[in-house]
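Hey team,

Filing this mostly as a record. A colleague (T.K.) asked me to run one chain through the structure pipeline before their review meeting, and I want the input and output archived in the tracker in case anyone asks later how it was produced. No errors, nothing strange. Just documentation.

Input sequence:
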Amino acid sequence: MYFLIDFENVRNAGMQGSEYLQPADHVIVFYSAAASGMEQRHLNNIQASGCGFETYKLRRQGKNGLDFYIATKVGELFGANRCQSAVLVSNDAGFKAIREFWQECSGTKNRVALSSSIENGIISVNEVSERATRIRAHRKTMDIGHFYAAYREREELLTLLRKAFSGTAYTSRLREIEEILKPGATRKVLYLDSLRRFGRQGGQEVYRILKTCATG
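Output structure:
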């Protein structure tokens, strides 16, 4: 996927989702002297992803200068068959003209998507991938009251575990022990999971203590 970032327009908000970049992606950032600073985390994500990366700095200040840069680059990419689709990351409504040209006027299979961020771009093109699935999962809403009830229940469980395992060799592994206590887990499941995680001797000791914390 090619992402063309109108950085002067979107700034760091447009880089949201940089952690989802992959080696097959290509990021092109268009910026000016007035907007030349990007948060280090996004730059680190770009480098860590292994994706392609280019930048173009506006040479002379002028109205819509970067817009012309971006429009020209889209034509270059499609003309050279470097890609068949591109995401323009910008809040500038004027870029709709580029999308309309390629999707309605040019008669080619090239497609342009408009998005306010990298993350939104991945979703807007209906990409079928693991990263798109993860983004959609992270975007699901949850009732705050239900979340808080689950949060309080978990905190109470951790308090119980800290007390039960106090003074043992397992106080530093409470998060792992907590994972054994799955909702509805039978004593047999607790026992087998304890052995799997802590070995026979350690698992038996953990299970013995867990029996005092678990119900059912």
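Quick notes for T.K.: The chain has a mean pLDDT of 92. Residues 187-210 form the longest helix (24 residues).
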